Amino acid sequence: MSNVTMKQLLEAGVHFGHQTRRWNPKMEPYIYGARNGIHIIDLRQTLAQINRTYDFVRDAVADGGLVLFVGTKKQAQGPIEEAATRSQMPYVNFRWLGGMLTNFATIQKRIFYMRELERMDESGEMEALPKKERLHLRRELWKLQRVLGGVRDLNHLPQALFIVDLNAEQIALKEAARLGIPVIALVDTNCDPDLVDFVIPGNDDAIRSAQLMAGFVAAACIEGRDIALKGPSSGEEAK
Asked: pLDDT for 22-62, tens place per residue?
């Protein structure tokens, strides 16, 4: 169970939705009311969904699964990288490459190429190349690291995606749906919750909200990994 509290949700501004005229009617069950033309999200439901999601993530990681953190909008980039790095999970926070999941083999080849360029740069091989070619390869390496740096250790498809802002990550969402990969998402009042397996109703525009949500998913990943490392308890072994 997560240790996120109602006070933390309020302080992070998780309850602030979008303008009432910009809402998605499917989010009505998660809305408490409206204030000054802004929808207010029912944080009791947010807290309940956080606890449900926490248990799912913990168990998935305990069984050897990976959670791919996704958030490419400016407000999400920092929180996504920090939480994923802390929990040793893969992440995408700059741009989602089409086929990241559905054309996984090709993405793996690009990661291998990025690693080869890194090896050439670190070993000094690039210095021996003509200046024009050296500059071209280093520019290519920089581009690859921005897009693929967070998934460099992703050796198999993830067991779940955690997304901040569904509307900004439509390609990732469609690829996960096509492959049957569960999606966890911070879902604001202008989004369609039917596209998500684990709906966490909340503000997807505030940095503090993204930090809190990415943080609890990271905590669940860390607990799940600890369970996996400890293995079965002595009581279970005796059965």
From this structure: 999 999 999 999 999 999 999 999 999 999 999 999 999 99
**Residue 38 belongs to a domain with what CATH number?**
3.40.50.10490
Please give the DSSP secondary-structure letter assigned to residue 115. Answer: H
Count: domains in the chain = 2
Beta strand extents in the chain (DSSP E only): 16-19, 31-35, 38-41, 67-70, 91-92, 160-164, 183-187, 198-201
Global confidence as pTM: 0.92
Cβ-contact 215, 53 below 8 angstroms: no
Q: What percentage of residues in the chain have a pLDDT greater than 90?
A: 95
Crossing angle for the helix pair 43-62 and 207-230, to the nearest 10 degrees: 30
* Residue 28: exposure state from Cβ atoms within 10 A (0-12, 13-18, ≥19): exposed
Token digits for 157? 């498809």
- Which domain does 28 fall in, by range? 6-101+157-229
Do residues 17 and 189 lie in contact, with contact meaning Cβ atoms separated by under 8 Å?
yes
Contact (CB, 8 A) for 67 and 30: no
pLDDT attached to residue 2:
81
Confidence of residue 233 (pLDDT cuts 50, 70, 90): low
